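Summary for the steering committee. The consortium agreed at its last meeting that each partner would contribute one worked example illustrating the joint modelling workflow. Our contribution is presented below. We chose a case with several input lines so that the handling of multiple components could be demonstrated. No manual editing was applied between input and output; the record is shown as generated.
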Amino acid sequence: MYEKNLNIGYLLDFYGDVLPERKRNVLDMYYNEDFSLAEISEEIGISRQGVRDIIKKAEEELCFFESKLGLSKKMTDLAQKTDSLLAVAIETQASAVVCEGIAELKKRIEQ
Amino acid sequence: MYEKNLNIGYLLDFYGDVLPERKRNVLDMYYNEDFSLAEISEEIGISRQGVRDIIKKAEEELCFFESKLGLSKKMTDLAQKTDSLLAVAIETQASAVVCEGIAELKKRIEQ
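What follows is the complete predicted structure of the assembly.
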């Protein structure tokens, strides 16, 4: 049984575009569309072991990017900080334009 | 004459860690330490054409990452938005804790 690493779905959203199309598609079917290995195997016409190998290599690439760049973690941290800042701004009755600006910033960080 | 692309230095700071060590070192010597091709050639013991080839391929990799992920541009945009927000916060007399929080956020974005 191949175990899903739930963090991979997030890394796929983040770094997926640098993966070759085939790898990205397989990971997408597996993590976002919840296909089984057998279903992916049938869909793209390779063995289940072949699917497993593609998934493993693609996961390793995504983890390599995050280990080197750490940008997924950085964006998550920034979104949390912005959220806390918005709470403080509301609490201290900052002007609407400031509160909206912080909320807009959070949206952009999360995009 | 090989022309320097000034944007590469920034992309190197941003994505450089995903490049293999040799490529990263050559780009670093060329863009950050301002070595000439001849000096790099002497330093690492390969021809000037070899150095030129390494630089070209490494530049292409960095540009590929940015074209796919756009994270360097995203961070620059976020830093600018945060800067504008700080100006608005100061202008509308937001509390010190809000202004400091925005300034801290900008520092983290630029780190």
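Helices of chain B lie at 6-15, 21-32, 37-44, 48-69, 71-91, 96-110. Chain B has two domains: 6-69, 72-110.
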